[in-house]
Design a protein that fits this description.
Helix content is about 10%, strand content about 35%. With about 675 residues, it is mainly beta. The strands form 13 sheets. The protein has a 6-stranded mixed sheet, with no helix packed on it. A hairpin with a 2-residue loop joins strand 12 and strand 13. The C terminus is likely disordered.
Length: about 675
């Protein structure tokens, strides 16, 4: 064969190179086009998938829970399915994340467990949501989304941007319970209220309108046009179609029909006649017998009241006997005129002989049953005039104790007894049952302390415990039977007195090696002390009592004398005045108040232990001697409950359990003129 010449070889090589270059260029171009088409397809596919998923989620949601007209990269939706509520869509490091369901630690937030709506073949550059409220239409959320194909080749970096809006297509309907994310959420709001709420009928046991903590409490439909009210799953009241209200009855025949006890307070008002036990009252108020139907209480329009009669002609007319009863009578009839005819009511004679006064002329001596000239004795009515009675003994004998009253219970606290012991004892006395109970012990053992109560808390202040004068201030709460330590009193002392005015406790006088005139005020609300004007007469072993917000410091002892001193302190002016002296000089006495009269009881003087009982009336600045206490003693405590004074404990050579009650009112004797 003929060989190619050099020129031919060069020519053919050039042709092949040109053709090869052209083919390579064509191949590269085709490859690049294919890559861009693949990238574009991937971005478009993921963009469409994300938008389709967003439309599905928004349309299924019951609420779009983001701020209106504020762009955010996280969309939070409330869903009907509790397992998917709430649902969040967010952008995290170029990937769109979907979180469905609540966070166990905070159910109002979305779970931290997420799934990806985009994969690593694309990068999400921006994702922005914005809610638009179009009341009364449905909420709309706008979506701005930009994706880029994930490639290092600039020619393959296809980018797509989409802006659209998605609306909730219908009102929310639910196939399970609708639960709020917080108990602070409300249905509707001011200016945008719902028209009506339609409920099932419900029953008394399961009312249609009820409450989370009491599902047996609420409203239900008891019948056609009948509204029922239930508590504890039982019907208690209903309103029928005629507007009649039945309480404890389902067949109300009147505007208000009550089956059972009915109570009206002092502020209640009524119009028209009221009949109880009768449907035809003949007066403003008629209470009829359930057996006979006749009235046994009638109030007429003119104000006349009849008992046992329906036609009283006097302000009070009683067809039958009158009896004032009670195991311990404390009742009386006052302001009776002298009788002028044999049919008049008996008059009365006031007897005060037991208190040292004279028996009125023509009156009977106490408890006499014989006749007085011109009069016939018909009996007496005793109102415990100046009389003492022995009550249940205190469990622990002691002196130097303090006493205070909370809710009609007397608390006897601390003291000293025959075992040479300073006590933490706290024993409660109930006058109603005449019985004692042991309560939580005071933290600090002590005697010769003072006590006062403010807002049902007892404060035990100062005292002595064998070697130390104390500033201790401990508070006892009877409702929890517990003690707490409060701010100490500034001045260390024992044998002081304490009294409370307007929720401030005043600690007065005492002894700490010197006899004191100190007056310090404690405010429980701030747990702080303030120094006040000193008492004019320095002293210890005194008593204190309060009448009309004035504190009276009575008796005591100073460095050389038993005292009759009576000095009054006015907290409103922070000033003292001297008042009428107590008749009997004494120390270690006790004091209590009944009906604005101060009773100074017991104590000790140069003559020994005393039974003395003297009453001071601040309104007249005068003293009266009253019936002596049965047991002579000093170092006792006293407190008043329901106008009865209880003198508790003390010392008279022995440490005492004694509890004696004093009633300082009057006795009336009934006489009939012959």
């Amino acid at each position: 064969m003929k060989a190619f010449t050099l020129i031919e070889l060069l020519l053919y090589t050039a042709i092949f190179a040109v053709v090869g270059g052209l083919m390579t260029g064509i191949l590269l171009t085709v490859t690049q086009v294919h890559q861009r088409e693949s990238a574009s397809t991937e971005v478009t596919s993921q963009l469409n998938f994300v938008m389709q998923r967003l439309r599905q989620l928004v349309s299924e949601s019951s609420n779009i829970e983001i701020d209106a007209v504020v762009a955010t990269s996280t969309l939070k939706l409330r869903m009907k399915d509790p397992a998917k509520d709430p649902t969040c869509i967010s952008l995290v490091n170029g990937t769109i994340k979907l979180a469905e369901g609540p966070d166990p630690s905070n159910p109002n937030n979305c779970t931290t467990n997420t799934s990806d709506l985009t994969n690593d073949r694309v990068i999400v550059d921006t994702l922005s949501f914005k809610k638009f409220t179009q009341y009364p239409g449905h909420d709309t959320v706008s979506v701005d989304l930009q994706m880029t194909y994930n490639s290092d080749n600039p020619k393959s970096r296809v980018q797509r941007t989409l802006s659209t809006a998605i609306a909730r297509v219908s009102a929310a309907t639910f196939d399970s319970n609708l639960l709020p994310g917080s108990t602070s959420y409300e249905i509707g709001q001011q200016g945008a209220s719902w028209g009506r709420i339609y409920l099932n009928d419900g029953t008394a046991a399961s009312p249609a309108y009820t409450f989370a903590n009491n599902t047996g409490l609420g409203l239900f439909r008891a019948g056609d046009n009948i509204l029922g009210f239930s508590t504890a799953g039982l019907e208690r009241m209903r309103i029928d179609a005629n507007g009649n209200i039945g309480i404890a009855t389902t067949t109300a025949s009147y505007t208000l029909d009550v089956f059972g006890t009915f109570r009206a307070f002092a502020t209640s008002t009524f119009s028209g006649n009221i009949g109880i036990g009768t449907s035809t009252p003949s007066g403003i108020l008629v209470v009829a017998s359930s057996t006979t139907g006749s009235g046994f209480l009638t109030v007429l329009p003119n104000g006349n009241i009849g008992i046992g009669t329906i036609s009283p002609v006097e302000k009070l007319e009683v067809a039958g006997n009158i009896k004032l009863s009670g195991a311990t009578p404390t009742y009386k009839i006052t302001n009776l005129a002298s009788p002028t005819a044999s049919s008049d009511a008996a008059t009365k004679a006031y007897v005060d002989a037991a208190a040292g006064g004279s028996t009125p002329s023509g009156a009977l001596a106490p408890f006499a049953t014989s006749s007085v000239s011109g009069w016939t004795y018909t009996g007496y009515y005793e109102i415990k005039n100046n009389i003492w009675a022995v009550k249940a003994s205190m469990p622990t004998a002691r002196s130097g104790l303090a006493a205070a009253v909370v809710n009609n219970i007397i608390y006897a606290i601390g003291g000293y007894n025959s075992s040479n012991s300073y006590l933490t004892t706290n024993q409660a006395y109930d006058p109603l049952t005449d019985s004692w109970t042991t309560r939580a012990s005071m933290p600090t053992a002590r005697a010769y302390l003072a006590a006062a109560a403010v807002n049902n808390i007892i404060y035990a202040i100062g005292g002595y415990n064998s070697s130390n004068y104390l500033t201790t201030n401990e508070a006892y709460d009877p409702s929890t039977d517990s003690w707490i330590t409060r701010t100490s009193m500034p001045t260390v002392r024992r044998d002081l007195a304490a009294a409370a005015v307007n929720n401030i406790i005043y600690a007065i006088g005492g002894y700490n090696g010197s006899y004191l005139s100190t007056n310090e005020a404690y405010d429980p609300s701030t747990n702080s002390w303030t120094t006040k004007t000193s008492m004019p007469t320095a002293r210890a072993y005194l008593a204190a009592a309060v009448v009309n917000n004035i504190i009276y410091a009575i008796g005591g002892y100073n460095s050389s004398n038993y005292l009759t001193t009576n000095e009054a302190y006015d907290p409103s002016t922070n000033s003292w005045t001297t008042r009428a002296s107590m008749p009997t000089a004494r120390e270690f006495l006790a004091a209590a108040v009944v009906n604005n009269i101060i009773y100074a009881i017991g104590g000790a003087s140069i003559s020994g232990y005393l039974t003395t009982n003297e009453a001071y009336d601040p309104s007249t600045n005068s003293w009266t001697t009253r019936a002596s206490m049965p047991t002579a003693r000093g170092g006792l405590a006293a407190a008043a409950v329901n106008n009865i004074i209880y003198a508790i404990g003390g010392y008279n050579g022995s440490y005492l359990y004694t509890n004696e009650a004093y009633d300082g009112q009057y006795i009336f004797y009934w006489l009939k003129k012959d």
